[in-house]
Amino acid sequence: MKSMSATSTTSRLQVLLDRRDYRALREVAKQQGLSLGEWVRRVLRQAAQVWSPKPTVKKIQAIRRAAKGEYPTAEIGQMLSEIEHGYLRG
Predict the structure, then answer these.
(1) Domain segments of the chain: what residues?
(2) d(CA 74, CA 41)
(3) How far from 85 is each of 3, 71, 72, 75, CA to CA, in Å?
(4) Angstrom distances, CA of residue 37 to CA of 21, 33, 34, 55, 70
(5) Which of 27, 53, 66, 86 lies at 20 to 30 Å from 34 by C-alpha?
(6) By the 8 A CB rule, do 25 and 31 touch?
(7) How far is CA 81 from the centre of its chain?
């Protein structure tokens, strides 16, 4: 376990739980060989990754960049015909 010095850039978060929830979470952490505090930090990091809007923003940005490009295109019939012609030519 890492020790935290007074110069560390940490913040304190207080979460109030009823006794039953506290005991249940403490047992889960214990089963994983973690302190309850470390278990909570890991769970919160995982939740932040899941709920973070960043992946969606990056996807939208990629789509916008791709939409600015010029790519060959045609009517679907013509495209299918050209694909078939390419297969036949080998």
Answers:
(1) 19-89
(2) 53
(3) 68, 20, 17, 15
(4) 14, 12, 8, 28, 52
(5) 53
(6) no
(7) 41
